[in-house]
Amino acid sequence: MKSRSLSLVLVPLLFLLPVLRAGPGCAPCDPAQCAPLPAEGCPAGSLRDICGCCAVCAAAEGELCGGRRAAARRCGSGLECVRSDDDKKSKTGVCACKSTYEVCGTDGTTYRNGCALKTASMAAQKEGGEAISIQNKGRCASAPIIVTPPGQVYNVSGSQVYLSCEAVGVPTPVLTWRKVLGGKRKAELLPGDRDNLAIQTRGGPEKHQVTGWVLISPLTEEEAGSYECHAANSKGEASATGAIHLVDSIDDIIVKTGMKEDEL
Fold it and tell me: What is the dihedral angle through the alpha carbons of 3, 6, 12, 15, rounded to the nearest 10 degrees?
């Protein structure tokens, strides 16, 4: 009798199991009723819906996530649903990558984070290419680029002048200056033994960027001429040229540069 009574209790419970597994707001799971995934695939991958029944596209970076009960949408792998104070009432948010640092992919491309790399990898595989994985944290190694070349400076004898130059590369480039010369000697590495000339260098303002200056005080006829900014690292080198022009008067500076007298 006890065995028969126990079986009578278990039978209705078995019918309730699909409903219990489904959770609040979920109907019993029927895979035949599930909509197919898009033929072009899911940018952020697929996962089971909140009811644990159907395969659905995960929300990608920047897409809406969360929501109420069965309509809730979850973020893909490596993403989290970030909600602002205004979003807490509606229980919705936006998918954001858990990692915030740049990464270098095995394809030699720098990605803003690991999630962007994963999306690119899935797209590459869809096109029949190889998967992209993280080669290293941070930007990919690259030859220097001169982002701000030295300009053209006009001033009178005895004044203080400078040329500036900015370069970027990975690893951070080493910046040097040369004065372009005529004759057999093509360039003179600065500062040399000049008392009125100094070289200054500092990192930044951006990561892997370096800024350098040639400072001259006082300016003489000997310092007039062309100056080369040279950036180098293990991946290559780059250079750009500017010039310092010695003029006779402030009027000449105004004519050459188009500046007003009160700007000098």
Answer: -80
Q: Which amino acid, residue 155?
A: N
Q: How does pLDDT run across 113-162, given as a tens digit for each residue?
A: 999 998 899 889 888 999 999 999 999 999 999 999 999 999 999 999 99
Look at phi and psi of residue 255 and say left if phi exceeds 0, alpha if psi is from -120 to 50, else beta: alpha
Which is nearest to 148 in space by CA: 206, 71, 218?
206
Nearest one of 132, 126, 142 to 106, comparing CA atoms: 132
For residues 164 and 59, what is the distance between their CA atoms, to the nearest angstrom? 47
Query: How sure is the predictor about 222, in pLDDT bands with cuts at 50, 70 and 90?
Result: very high
Q: Mean of the pLDDT values across residues 214-236? A: 95
Q: Say what the pLDDT of residue 20 is.
A: 37
Q: What is the CATH number of domain 142-262?
A: 2.60.40.10
Q: What angle do CA 72, 74, 76 make, to 5 degrees?
A: 165
pLDDT of residue 45: 86
Q: Which residue has the higher pLDDT, 183 or 172?
A: 172
| Alpha-carbon span 68 to 65, nearest angstrom | 10
CA distance 148 to 205: 12
Contact yes or no for 211/249 (Cβ under 8 A): no
Please state, in angstroms and as integers, the Cα–Cα distance from residue 247 to each residue in 159, 221, 224, following that order: 11, 9, 10
Please report the pLDDT score of residue 186 as a whole number.
77
In the chain, where are the structural domains located?
103-137, 142-262
CA–CA gap between residue 176 and residue 201 (Å, rounded) = 9
Cα 105 from Cα 120, distance rounded (Å): 10
Looking at residue 257, what is its pLDDT? 64
- CB 149 within 8 Å of CB 168: no
Tokens for 60, please give them: 């990608």
